[in-house]
Specification:
The structure is a homodimer.
Chain A (H helix, E strand, L loop, with lengths): L11 E10 L13 H13 L5 H4 E5 L5 H9 L14 E5 L4 E5 L5 E8 L3 H18 L4 E2 L3 E2 L11 E8 L1 H5 L3 H6 L6 E5 L11 E6 L7 H29 L1 H17 L5 H16 L11 H7 L2 H5 L6 H15 L1
Antiparallel strand pairs in A: 1-5, 1-8, 2-3, 3-4, 4-5, 6-7, 8-10, 9-10
Helix pairs in contact in A: 7-8, 8-9, 9-10
Chain lengths: 332, 332
């Protein structure tokens, strides 16, 4: 199932594990002249392996994809936004889109597992398994002291970035979000808004990830991340209860009005849409609203981003606002 | 049909003709000791007449009505708000509620015809006919120079107040309402907001009426009022066209959002409800929205006034806001 349709508790929306790997004695992609040969070797490590994985993956060469196909893959977090303008890279994607292996992005290999809900151990085990399959036929650049070598030194060591996307609307509404997120700074944990920076994330979506990849084992990184995620999740739950117990009418009124506006608006900006869809998602999680539309609020949030809405048609901001409102009206 | 369900073009919502009459050689109600005898004589002039009207009317003595029955009659404009606390007066109302005859209000007789839409001549003819029936058995206080004598001198002369309720949301939105209404000052025409004073009427509802009752015939008063009403109506139509032609997206977006909010809000203030219901009424008139609810937006506007919503239950402002939102959600 695509990650954004499998949301679990509505607070911890999705889990990602990303491993960066490079081939021994081979320049990093930015300095590699003939990428084709290396890229084929990398894709063969999956597609020609004896593992059952070989049949699960399909190879997409970016030069053969249209702009809108690449945009769609970015939406689903299967390729990085940088790869939209890349004509030399490729990506391996499995059938249910939980695994993607970008080839010739910043590193030779960027293996990513993405799952709906809270699944750090499961995602890491899967990443480790795929990594093992690839390593059967490849020799990674590895240093006893620095671990896996990567194009950017901040990724060296485990080469792993573990991250969890959290929906924290109640902490935003109560004004506690800054305090909560600041309290985890300096712990080797980074918090980024999925849309917008830092604590002003539109849609109240936050990526919580490890910022240190060196000096800790993969398991240690994951355990540390879990402690922080659990803590933030508890705080969000408390904030939701507080709003429901102490400010029920104002709180539910706000959520219901957002739902009403989204169902009838003729035009809507990206920021307004994200904020209101976040409120509807919250209302749905809390059983205040039942959404029976064709798309979940989160899917609509992803698909109503300016780049996605206006991408291929080169629409004006005003036209985008109308198209966005229409998309939401018809699918919420 | 009750006037607020028969709206015609959505600009001229309803028409009222009111005649003030008093009995010759009898003190005005405020100075009259024994009102019962006079009141019976007045009601007999209808109920015991040979006219077919006698069977159409029912007499309600205010002392025998409950507070909520009287509030309901005020909503429907069958009695004046002052009569809610009156235990000596009475009112005659016909079956379809287009006619009411208040007895022992400010004057002995306040005969009112109220019709949906634009119907000044029709309403006046009917008032004249009822007036004739009453005069068959009554002798009115009449002076050759001052015409019909009334408790308040401003009503002397014809004793007639002709008024039209207009819905002017587009003139409010374009900011032209003040200019339009000011242009008719000094012409013997008064403009009042149905809710709120002057040009800041909530719900964009305005009563246009004659302010002079002396020195002109009934027909002259009505013709003069028609000229003004037609002029304002044309201006409102032009403003609607302008909004639709030049600012269609912003305009329809505003109306549709109001509709969405009214359909989902958990609490809503009286002022917000009136403004939004006015916008929905406009959208309905212009064919932008089809309202299929149990009540028209105008009926909801009338029934969501604070006095009506909170009247008999003595609700707090917060409770009224919730009850109002519920009424609108369920009936729009």
């Amino acid at each position: 199932m695509i990650w954004y349709n499998d949301l679990n508790d509505g607070i911890i929306l999705s889990t990602r594990i990303r491993l960066a790997r490079n081939i021994d004695k081979t320049p990093f992609p930015s300095r590699l002249k003939d990428k084709t040969k290396v890229r084929e070797m990398l894709s063969d490590s999956i597609l020609k392996s004896n593992s059952t994985l070989s049949k699960d993956f399909t190879l997409y060469e970016l030069s053969k994809l249209s702009q809108s196909e690449k945009t769609a893959m970015t939406e689903e977090h299967l390729i990085s936004p940088q790869m939209i303008n890349d004509n030399e890279g490729a990506v391996l994607v499995n059938k249910d889109k939980t695994m993607s292996i970008m080839l010739m992005e910043e590193d030779h290999i960027r293996l990513q597992i993405i799952k709906g809900g809270y699944a750090l151990d499961e995602a890491y085990d899967l990443a480790d398994k795929v990594d093992d399959v690839m390593e059967e036929s490849l020799t990674y650049a590895f240093d006893e002291k620095f671990g896996y070598l990567t194009a950017c030194p901040t990724n060296a060591g485990t080469g792993m970035r573990a991250s969890v996307m959290m929906h924290l609307p109640a902490l935003v509404m109560t004004g506690n979000i800054s305090r909560v997120l600041q309290s985890f700074s300096g712990m080797g944990i980074a918090v980024r808004g999925m849309y917008g920076e830092g604590t002003n994330a539109d849609g109240a979506l936050y990526q919580i990830s490890n910022s240190i990849t060196l000096g800790l084992s993969e398991q240690e990184i994951i355990e540390k991340l879990k402690v922080v995620v659990n803590k933030i999740s508890d705080m969000e739950k408390q904030a939701r209860e507080m709003l429901m117990n102490n400010r029920k009418d104002d709180f539910t009124d706000k959520l219901m009005r957002s739902y009403g506006i989204l169902k009838y608006a003729v035009k809507i900006t990206s920021q307004e849409a994200k904020t209101m869809l976040s409120e509807v998602m919250l209302a749905q999680n809390m059983g205040i609203i039942e959404c029976n539309g064709k798309m979940t609020p989160l899917e609509l949030m992803i698909k109503s981003a300016p780049s996605v809405i206006g991408g291929k048609d080169n629409l004006s901001p005003d036209e985008r606002d109308k198209k966005r409102a229409e998309l939401i009206r018809e699918n919420l």
